[in-house]
């Protein structure tokens, strides 16, 4: 519906305007952008590699190439995927690190001793969410849901009917109860629209059992009725008085407004926090296959999973002999339900590692989209493969869990060979082909 689309569009524009910061003249010195609290928190447990002079020069060269025109063969409408970055960057970084180690060793009179003991660092600090409609914050789910609730209630003055409809859809967990409430409210609207002069449709007894069970128990429902024009009144009922919601004859006669409210109610959808990918970029490391995941990744506790694994190994031979096909299928489904999230690491051709978090029920298309949005060129095709060379198709229907990628996995990134050769020829060699965007490379950390 147009009213809902316009509302969301306006709120997103408001957010962009508010987060742009204080105004300034074009001749003024530009302020230094600040990292978000989540970016700094998520990287706190990692050592950020400071850029060397050589890295700065490489980044400047990368920006210069980014501003250069696209290769001639790419302008003809080639499809899809963007990439970039250079092997020299990592070679220079390694050389600089080796030099620093030599200097430290010379100053201390011997090799540096690294304490390898101590608690392991988590591969990801936690599970976070964002919601573009309410701002750019990245928060744990409960905090993000509270922020969405605060946002919706703040819109009540400006858009009472729409905000009430969104509150009904968003802030109530029981979707069957929400459907019953929406159906009942639509029935109230239909009755008044079809018979605006019928007095019995202009009032609702709030003590009525059906009203209590179908409508009042749902957060936002009374706000919606108030938006329709209902107000609380004490009216005669049987031998005494009772509480009613009453709409005036004038408000009931405004059928155009009521029709629009029904349309808003039936077309509104819940505002759901989006899983933040928690993008991290690591320099080449032998630890790429080592994962230490927080408990939030599992539906069961880690202890329960370990116990179940021990029991399964103890009875494996017996199970192989006695299990039917149906029993095996049940075991497979039980295995899939263990995990909530998947942590994927994508190893690029230059050994740089990109990491992101996904829901287990998401499909490979989401992983391809995640990789693509961080690459330099959006036209260059690529594939994602397992360590043994099996390719995961972008349009694959099975979920990440069904593909065996939960709770964590490493995938290998590979360019389309033919297009890669054309790009290399255009750029002056394979070592000139870049992958990640410069601002993504700026997040490089040690794994």
**Helix/strand class:** alpha+beta
Instruction: Work out the number of β strands.
Output: 13
What about the largest sheet? 8 strands, mixed
**Terminal Cα span:** 47 Å
Which of globular, elongated, flat, extended, rod-shaped describes the shape? elongated
- Widest sheet, order of strands: 1-13-7-9-8-12-10-11
Compute the number of helices: 17
Question: DSSP strand (E) fraction?
Answer: 5-15%
- Residue ranges: pLDDT <50 for 5 or more in a row? 32-46, 70-87, 105-120
Walk me through the topology:
Blueprint lengths: L1 H17 L18 H6 L4 E2 L4 H15 L19 H22 L20 E2 L10 H14 L5 H11 L4 H20 L8 E3 L3 H8 L4 H8 L1 E8 L2 E8 L1 H5 L1 H13 L6 E2 L4 E3 L19 H13 L1 H7 L2 H12 L4 E7 L5 E7 L4 H9 L9 E4 L5 E2 L15 E8 L1 H11 L10 H4 L2 E3 L1
Helix pairs in contact: 6-9, 6-11, 7-11
Structure in words:
The chain is an alpha+beta fold. The chain is built from 17 helices and 13 strands. It has helices at 2-18, 37-42, 53-67, 87-108, 141-154, 160-170, 175-194, 209-216, 221-228, 249-253, 255-267, 302-314, 316-322, 325-336, 364-372, 417-427, 438-441; strands spanning 47-48, 129-130, 203-205, 230-237, 240-247, 274-275, 280-282, 341-347, 353-359, 382-385, 391-392, 408-415, 444-446. An eight-stranded mixed sheet has the order 1-13-7-9-8-12-10-11. α6 (160-170) packs parallel to α11 (255-267). It is elongated, with a radius of gyration of 29 Å. It starts with a helix and ends with a strand. The model is unreliable at 32-46, 70-87 and 105-120 (pLDDT under 50).
Structure described in brief:
The chain is of the alpha+beta class. The protein has helices at residues 2-18, 37-42, 53-67, 87-108, 141-154, 160-170, 175-194, 209-216, 221-228, 249-253, 255-267, 302-314, 316-322, 325-336, 364-372, 417-427, 438-441, and strands spanning 47-48, 129-130, 203-205, 230-237, 240-247, 274-275, 280-282, 341-347, 353-359, 382-385, 391-392, 408-415, 444-446.
């Amino acid at each position: 519906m147009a009213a809902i689309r316009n509302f969301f569009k306006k709120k997103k524009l408001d957010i962009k305007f508010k987060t742009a910061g204080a105004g300034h003249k074009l001749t003024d010195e530009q302020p230094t952008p600040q990292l978000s609290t989540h970016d700094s928190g998520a990287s706190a447990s990692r050592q950020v590699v400071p850029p060397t002079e050589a890295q700065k020069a490489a980044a400047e060269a990368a920006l210069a190439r980014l501003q250069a025109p696209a290769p001639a063969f790419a302008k003809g409408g080639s499809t899809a995927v963007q990439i970039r970055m250079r092997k020299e960057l990592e070679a220079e970084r390694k050389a600089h690190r080796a030099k620093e180690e030599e200097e430290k060793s010379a100053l201390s009179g011997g090799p540096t001793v690294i304490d390898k003991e101590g608690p392991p660092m988590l591969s990801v600090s936690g599970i976070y969410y964002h919601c573009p409609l309410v701002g750019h914050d990245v928060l744990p789910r409960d905090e993000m849901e509270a922020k969405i609730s605060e946002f919706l209630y703040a819109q009540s003055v400006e858009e009472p009917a729409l905000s009430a409809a969104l509150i009904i859809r968003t802030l109530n967990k029981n979707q069957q109860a929400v459907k019953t409430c929406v159906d009942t409210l639509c029935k109230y609207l239909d009755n008044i629209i079809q018979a605006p002069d019928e007095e019995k449709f202009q009032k609702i007894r709030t003590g009525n059992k059906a009203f209590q069970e179908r409508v009042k128990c749902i957060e936002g429902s009374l706000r919606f009725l108030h938006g329709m024009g209902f107000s609380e009144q004490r009216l005669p009922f049987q031998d005494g008085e009772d509480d009613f919601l009453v709409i005036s004859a004038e408000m009931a006669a405004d059928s155009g407004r009521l029709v629009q409210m029904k349309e808003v109610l039936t077309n509104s959808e819940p505002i759901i926090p989006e899983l933040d990918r928690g993008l991290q970029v690591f320099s080449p490391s032998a630890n790429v296959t080592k994962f230490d995941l927080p408990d939030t990744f599992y539906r069961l506790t880690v202890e329960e999973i370990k116990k179940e694994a021990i029991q399964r190994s103890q009875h494996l031979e017996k199970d192989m002999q006695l299990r039917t096909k149906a029993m095996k299928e049940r075991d497979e489904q039980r295995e899939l339900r263990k995990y909530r999230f998947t942590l994927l690491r994508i190893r690029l051709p230059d050994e740089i590692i990109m990491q992101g978090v996904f829901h287990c029920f998401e499909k490979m298309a989401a992983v391809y989209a995640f990789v693509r949005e961080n690459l330099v060129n959006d036209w260059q095709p690529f594939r994602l493969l397992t360590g043994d060379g099996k390719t995961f198709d972008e349009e694959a229907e099975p979920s990440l869990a069904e593909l065996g990628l939960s709770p964590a996995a490493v995938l290998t990134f590979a360019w389309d060979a033919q297009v890669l050769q054309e790009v290399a020829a255009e750029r002056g060699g394979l070592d000139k082909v870049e992958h990640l965007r410069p601002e993504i490379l700026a997040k490089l950390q040690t794994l």
